[in-house]
Amino acid sequence: MCAVTTDQQAGPLTGTVLDHRYRVDALIATGGMSGVYRGLDLRLDRPVALKIMDSRYSGDEHFLTRFQREARAVARLKHPGLVAVHDQGLDGQHPFLVMELVEGGTLRELLRERGPMPPHAVVAVLRPVLGGLAVAHRAGLVHRDIKPENVLISDDGEVKLADFGLVRAMAEAKITSTSVILGTAAYLAPEQVATGETDSRGDVYAVGVLVYELLTGVTPFTGDTPLAVAYQRMDRDVPAPSSVITGVPTQFDDFVACATARDPAYRFADAAEMGEELDAIATELFLPPFRVPAPRHSAAHQSALHQSAPTHHLGAGTATPGGHTKAYERDELPPQEPASDADAPEPTGRFAGIELSEFQWERQRARRAVLFWVVAVLTLAGLCAAGAWTLGSNLQNLL
């Protein structure tokens, strides 16, 4: 994988205007096949995010047709857990997508800053992600590349899933072939590795791996190459998160096990079913509500401050354990670089600067509050019943 770079001050397209409407401003991040820029819709005077694809796609009619079709389908999806798509087009040598600008950062950046999450913080992340994914699944759309880089967190605590449809469009481009695995190695479902095909249950598998990573701070499989990482899930189950970090409830072990079953038939059918089980677990464990914090030192924040932020390569070596979305040739893949100490998460006893023991105290307080109201309701019901019985017993005397 390409290493993280911090010396670029502007992208190659900074300052240009796409389609006589969208001004390209600061570069936020780049990946293997695209770059994401902060931009401005000159017609509506509205800040936007511009995802600009590599010029190699501009002459591929298969890709352009699929890209346009997927953009239209995703633009019809409406849910607060999805990044809105406003427009798409082709300007010169660059296909581009115009999206809602989320002021904040990525879940990957939050994990790098603050380490593993306690269960109720994981629930706060998953609820909007699964809610948005469920809307897409009902519409017949599959994401195919769920990972922390594609989960955005706003400064207001909103959590949104981005990048629907791009993997499918790239998979059908002429630059790929039957010898290619397309996606992000750490999150691919076994059937994606075996055949390249998937459905909603492939997204469920990726979310299961994401849950494991949120709870433990690491992905379940490692290897010398992305292909080695991808193939491990063919004959190995994702281990229980509690085997890596103490304090994980058994309900989350079972949740991850169901989501990442190697046989798709044993997984949750789709994001809606997975979301229902998540809500049941949160209720059973009395998990308190939580507002997910945006990362403080995100690339998006830097681009807003300087309008020419350092480039953070999505999925690059030390920043992204899983790697970025890529067409991986089965017979020749670049090795992954080992993680550096600088990118190691905080000790697992803390999250968002708060001791995990305080989260446990919040959970106990939530349980006590529920018990208090249960007792209050039962007491009130008992008093009403006693009053009704007394009134009924003396009704004839009163008459």
Automatic annotation (TrEMBL):
PROSITE patterns: PROTEIN_KINASE_DOM, PROTEIN_KINASE_ST. This is non-specific serine/threonine protein kinase. The chain crosses the membrane at residues 370-391. Keywords: ATP-binding, Cell membrane, Kinase, Membrane, Nucleotide-binding, Phosphoprotein, Serine/threonine-protein kinase, Transferase, Transmembrane, Transmembrane helix. It catalyses: L-seryl-[protein] + ATP = O-phospho-L-seryl-[protein] + ADP + H(+); L-threonyl-[protein] + ATP = O-phospho-L-threonyl-[protein] + ADP + H(+). It is an enzyme of class 2 (transferase). Gene3D superfamilies: Phosphorylase Kinase, domain 1, Transferase(Phosphotransferase) domain 1. PANTHER family: MITOGEN-ACTIVATED PROTEIN KINASE KINASE KINASE 20-RELATED, SERINE_THREONINE-PROTEIN KINASE YBDM-RELATED. Pfam families: Pkinase. The lineage of its organism: Bacteria, Bacillati, Actinomycetota, Actinomycetes, Mycobacteriales. It comes from Mycolicibacterium poriferae. Residues 300-309 have a biased composition (Low complexity). Its EC number is 2.7.11.1. GO terms for biological process: negative regulation of fatty acid biosynthetic process. InterPro entries: Kinase-like_dom_sf (IPR011009), Prot_kinase_dom (IPR000719), Ser/Thr_kinase_AS (IPR008271).
